[in-house]
Each structure stands twice: as structure tokens, then as C-alpha cells.
């Protein structure tokens, strides 16, 4: 758009921002952070389309003032971590709900493919999970302990190994988004097919409920986090494919930052999931109500924090 039009559309907003900056009342840290995002977005657009204009100079100055207002108070900076979980991450998630939904759809469809492939092809489960795992599980079933695999290692070793592996996988899913989102989609698809065939395998053995009440103690958080990581990868890939009003380089930088924030945000979820798998899932004889409490509690948290709560936060 023409610079004059850009000015008309945003001048009133910028004046309001300046008023917010210089008001006597102490500015809320979350509002200041949102203000900084707004200003830097406008500045990026102005730099791209009007690099040497007074508008760009003005926005650059305004962005510097906002940045200073955020970080001038050391006490406020100590609240950065709280602000990240309370406001910054939910706002990023809210902005990219569409990409997270696409990730969920890919994973869900791939689960169905894995499920029905295992149903109509007896060799499919072995193809996906491997002969070693299938034979071990069949042996455990014969020994009346189908979930024995979760007792095969010491608690701490399992917790650390699984957590590190899951975090590694999440970063891999994210980074593969560089391949125009296709890489992230492929890993989501392969993991979904694996899960679908895995669950049907236990259904075919008449052990679906037992496997569900055991596996999803940790799986609810683990699978949710993988889907969210896939969404972060799609954010990264789409920033290259669809830069909108920004240059492709600027769009990529913003997509990478937002995607990385999402990945950082799910690391604690993987830690909790790893803890549950290492220390809790192994207790396959726990009461059904306790298993359901953990599963439903985990599911409720994911729905609340990543879907409901972000919608309650207003952009500045």
C-alpha cells in the first residue's frame, strides 16, 4: 500500500501507544510486551516498503522507546519467565491455532490409516513396529503382563531416556518444517500411523481397555506435545511459503521465533510425560479411577492451556 494510506491506517494507534508510554501510571509488563510486538511488526513493514522514509525513522524511535520501557526496570525483567507462560506463549499459540489444528488433522488421519491398515493386513504391525517389539509384546501377553515393557528399565533411567528422546523428536519435527512444512507433516504422519497400528494391535488381542488405561497415562501429554510440535514446524514452513506483507526473510525470522517459543513451551510437558512414563505407567495394577483421573486431568490441561485460555487473552 502507499505510505500515505499506511500512515492514515496506523497514525491514531501510534499516538495511543505514545500516550501509553508516557503515562504516569506504571505500565503492565504484558501490555508493554504486546505493544512492542505491534510496533516491531509495523516497523518491519515500513522498512520493507518505505526504507528511507520519516515513517520508518519514527517507528524505529518508537520501538526503541517501547523496548526501553520494558527492560529499564530490573524487577520487571525478573518476571519475564512468568510473563512467558502467562501471556507470551498463549498469545503465540492463539495466533497459530490454525497451524496447530492442521497438525492435529494430519496426525488424526494418519492414526486412522495405521488403525485400518493393521486391521486389514496382519503383517502391517510388524512392518511398522518391528518384529522384536511385536514378539516381545506377544510374549508379555502370554505371561499375563502385556504392559511389562514399561517395567523393563529403572524409573530414573526410563524417565531421563524418554524425556530426552521426546524433546529431541519435537525439535526434529520443528526443524523439518524448513522443508516447506512437508517435513513436519511427514513425521506427524509416521508417528500417527505407528500409534494407530499400535492401538489396533492391542484391540485385536482383546486388550484395548487395559492398554488405553496404561499407555495414555503418559501418552495424553506426550502425543499432545508432539502434535503441538508439528504445529510449530508448520508455522516455520508457512513463514517461508506465505510471507504475506513481509519480505520472505523477515517472515522466516518471525516464524522461527514463534515456532521456537512453542517448542520451548512444550518442553515441561515432555518432562511431566517422561516422569509419568518412568514412575507411574509401570504400575499397571493401579485402580481404573486413578488412571482415568490422570488421563482426563492431562487432557483437560492441554485443552485449557492451548485452546481455551489463549482465547481469553486480548491482544494489546
Describe this structure in words.
The chain is mainly alpha-helical and 316 residues long. It has 2 domains: 3-78; 95-312, no CATH class. It has helices spanning 3-22, 29-49, 54-71, 74-77, 80-95, 97-120, 124-129, 131-142, 155-175, 182-204, 208-241, 248-280, 288-312. Helix 9 (155-175) packs parallel to helix 11 (208-241). It is elongated. The two termini are 24 Å apart. The mean pLDDT is 89.
Distance between the termini: 24 Å
- Beta strand count: 0
- The number of distinct helices, counting runs of at least 4 residues, comes to 13
Please tell me how large the radius of gyration is: 24 Å
The profile of the biggest β sheet is: none
Q: What general form does the structure show?
A: elongated
Percent helix range: over 70%
How many separate domains?
2
Structural class: mainly alpha
Which band does the percent of strand residues land in? Answer: under 5%
- What does the average pLDDT come to? 89
Which sequence of SSEs, written as H and E, runs from N to C? Answer: HHHHHHHHHHHHH
Low-confidence parts: none
Structure in a nutshell:
With 316 residues, the chain is mainly alpha-helical. The protein has helices spanning 3-22, 29-49, 54-71, 74-77, 80-95, 97-120, 124-129, 131-142, 155-175, 182-204, 208-241, 248-280, 288-312.
Question: Can you give keywords for this protein?
Answer:
2 domains; 13 helices; mainly alpha; single chain; elongated
Amino acid at each position: 500500500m502507499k505510505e500515505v494510506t499506511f500512515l492514515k491506517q496506523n497514525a491514531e494507534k501510534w499516538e495511543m501507544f505514545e500516550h501509553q508510554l508516557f503515562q504516569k501510571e506504571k505500565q503492565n509488563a504484558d501490555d508493554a510486551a504486546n505493544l512492542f510486538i505491534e510496533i516491531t511488526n509495523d516497523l518491519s513493514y515500513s522498512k520493507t516498503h518505505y526504507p528511507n522514509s520519516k515513517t520508518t525513522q519514527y517507528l524505529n524511535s518508537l520501538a526503541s522507546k517501547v523496548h526501553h520501557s520494558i527492560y529499564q526496570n530490573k524487577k520487571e525483567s525478573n518476571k519475564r519467565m512468568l510473563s512467558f507462560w502467562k501471556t507470551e506463549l498463549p498469545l503465540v499459540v492463539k495466533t497459530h491455532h490454525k497451524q496447530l489444528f492442521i497438525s492435529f488433522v494430519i496426525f488424526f488421519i494418519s492414526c486412522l490409516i495405521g488403525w485400518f491398515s493393521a486391521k486389514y493386513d496382519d503383517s502391517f504391525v510388524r512392518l511398522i513396529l518391528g518384529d522384536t517389539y511385536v514378539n516381545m509384546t506377544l510374549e508379555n501377553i502370554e505371561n499375563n503382563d502385556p504392559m511389562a515393557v514399561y517395567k523393563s528399565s529403572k524409573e530414573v533411567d526410563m524417565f531421563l531416556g524418554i524425556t530426552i528422546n521426546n524433546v529431541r523428536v519435537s525439535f526434529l519435527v520443528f526443524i523439518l518444517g524448513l522443508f516447506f512444512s512437508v517435513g513436519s507433516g511427514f513425521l506427524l504422519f509416521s508417528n500417527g500411523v505407528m500409534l494407530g497400528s499400535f492401538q489396533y494391535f492391542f484391540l485385536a488381542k482383546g486388550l484395548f481397555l487395559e492398554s488405553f488405561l496404561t499407555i495414555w497415562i503418559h501418552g495424553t501429554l506426550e502425543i499432545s506435545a508432539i502434535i503441538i510440535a508439528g504445529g510449530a514446524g508448520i508455522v516455520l514452513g508457512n513463514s517461508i511459503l506465505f510471507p504475506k506483507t513481509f519480505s520472505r526473510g523477515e517472515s522466516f525470522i518471525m516464524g522461527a521465533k514463534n515456532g521456537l517459543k512453542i517448542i520451548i513451551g512444550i518442553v515441561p510437558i515432555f518432562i511431566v510425560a517422561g516422569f509419568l512414563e518412568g514412575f507411574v505407567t509401570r504400575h499397571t495394577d493401579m485402580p481404573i479411577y486413578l488412571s482415568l483421573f490422570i488421563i482426563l486431568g492431562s487432557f483437560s490441561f492441554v485443552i485449557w492451556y492451548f485452546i481455551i485460555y489463549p482465547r481469553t487473552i486480548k491482544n494489546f
